[in-house]
Amino acid sequence: MKKLYRSNHVKEFLRSNQEFIFHLSKPVLFALLILTIFSSQSFSQLQDKEVRPQEKEFFFIDPMVFYSKDEMKARLDVYIEIPLDNLQFKKNYSTKDYDASINYKIKVTNLANEIVVNESIKDYVSTSKDAQKSLEESAKFIVKEFYLNPGAYSLEVTLKDINTNKEETLSDKIKIIDFSLKNVSFSDIMLVSNLKIENGKKVITPLIDKNIDNLQEIYLFFEVYNSQNKDVLSNYQYKITGAKEKIYEKGSYQYTLTPGINKFFEKIPTDNLVFGDYKLEITDISSGELIAEKDFSNKLNGMPVNSKDMNLMISQLLYIASGEEYSKIKNAPTEELKEKYFIEYWRSKDPSPNTTKNELMIEYYNRIEVANERYSHYIDGWKTDMGMVYIIYGEPNSIDRVPFAENSKPYEIWQYYTDNKEFIFFDESGFGDYKLAIPIWDDRGTRIRN
Q1: What angle do CA 34, 37, 41 make, to 5 degrees?
Q2: pTM
Q3: Over the range 93-118, which residues count as b (16 or more CB within 10 Å of their CB) and which as e?
Q4: What is the pLDDT at residue 439?
Q5: For each successive 10 residues of the chain (450 residues), what is the average pLDDT?
Q6: Rounded distance, CA 175 to CA 153, Å?
Q7: Strand 421-427's sheet: what is its strand order?
Q8: What is the DSSP letter of 329?
């Protein structure tokens, strides 16, 4: 646990506030003298009821087209991802598990609005009681295969939660190419959030929502088809562009393509990708032809605040970042560098770096949201002393409120049993503007907030 106050500040406070301190008990004085700022354990005290994430998507789809052995058709893979915390689970008393029931419909129509695919499937998700505690970390993945003639199509996927009757529809456009027309051709690109080897085989986690969020790197999976009866040396260039077609990443691939299907995984760094929307393009270097492309984004997942207000989110790092870290981000010369340093900071604190969610980051900004709801008056709640202590330490184990006291202004005492801490707030103005009896000091020996 890192102590950020300085003893000389405490002594100065005691000397200049003797009359004020006289009304405090000895145990409270002792608690005031041992104030320390938080460790990561403090965040575990945040209760479930306080989590207020943004409204999120009910489910995600990502249709991808691959070569089929039936040369007249191609294979359409429709990937569906359903976050389990979006579903309503009911206890199954016969199995002791918790079940969710879903129905999903997949409809594909051609340019003449003729239905070429129309499937309705009922499915179930079953979890244990323990697994119910971590639903937000789990998802159900579905992939359905269809074989279609070359052409342009419209896709609609409808998902219904049978237990709640909630229903949503997502749509997308599909282009099926004729793979037999070219000597060398590409499949669509799949984004992969995790790639590992198990028993000598590659095991992947597809990134269906196409949001890289907290991932420090992603993988591309695609197939290259060589219809010739000989090996072919091919050179490709990739680039990732963002707003105003600025290039954020670029590189090249060289492959010796054997006849038939060639499968590739390529790692893509995300260090330079600030928040926003992106397009990945792969072109044939020899011809300049665009071979494959994929849209994706980098946005904050599960956050209770608007990531577009980056300067506010950076200011709110005040209670968790060190003085050096805070100054580096806050004083970056450009907005893009601010975003880059902000992302780097939170990735360095991520307790689960191989997932798209940064639990500590989400919890921290959830606390800021709660502080704003509870303690705002003429300033935002996160800027108040009570908001600061709440953000750092979470929900107090007990609160003693003394609205009227002889020879003293109204005050509150917050107690944290696990951290062995006690904080005292006095209403100096009489209008509910509670101030800490002793300020909390940062690692530079100055107040965290003035």
Answers
A1: 115
A2: 0.73
A3: eeeebbbbbbebebbbebeeeeeebe
A4: 79
A5: 30 34 34 33 38 69 95 94 96 94 98 97 95 89 97 98 97 96 96 91 92 88 97 97 92 97 94 90 96 92 64 93 94 91 91 83 93 92 95 95 81 93 89 85 51
A6: 6
A7: 398-402, 411-416, 421-427, 434-436
A8: H
Q: List where CATH 2.60.40.3880 sits in the chain.
A: 57-177
Q: Which of 59, 152, 65, 67 is nearest to 108 (CA)?
A: 152
For 85-165, strand residue ranges (E) read 90-91, 98-110, 115-127, 139-148, 151-161
CA–CA separation, 413 and 24 (whole Å): 11
What is the number of H-type helices and E-type strands within the chain?
8, 21
Which among 425, 423, 422 has a CA at the least distance from the CA of 408? 425
Which part of the chain is CATH 2.70.50.60?
182-301
- Residue 411 contacts residue 391 (beta carbons within 8 Å): no
* Calpha distance 303→244 (Å, rounded): 26
Is the Cβ–Cβ distance between 168 and 58 less than 8 Å? yes
Find tokens 């608690």 and name the residue. 31
Q: Tell me if residue 131 falls in helix, strand or coil.
A: helix
The span from the CA of 367 to the CA of 373, in Å, is: 10
On whether the CB atoms of residues 317 and 344 are closer than 8 A, the answer is: no
Nearest alpha carbon to residue 172 among 248, 90, 60, 28: 60
Would you tell me how many other CB atoms lie within 10 Å of the CB of residue 136? 17
Q: Which fold has domain 57-177?
A: Immunoglobulin-like (2.60.40)
Q: What whole-number distance in Å separates Cα of residue 56 and Cα of residue 29? A: 46
Q: Which residues contact 337 (CB under 8 A, 6 or more apart)?
A: none
- Amino acid (1-letter code) at residue 68: S
- At the second CATH level, the architecture of 182-301 is Distorted Sandwich (2.70)
What's the gap between Cα 73 and its chain centre? 38
Residue that has been written with the tokens 């450009």 in this structure: 334
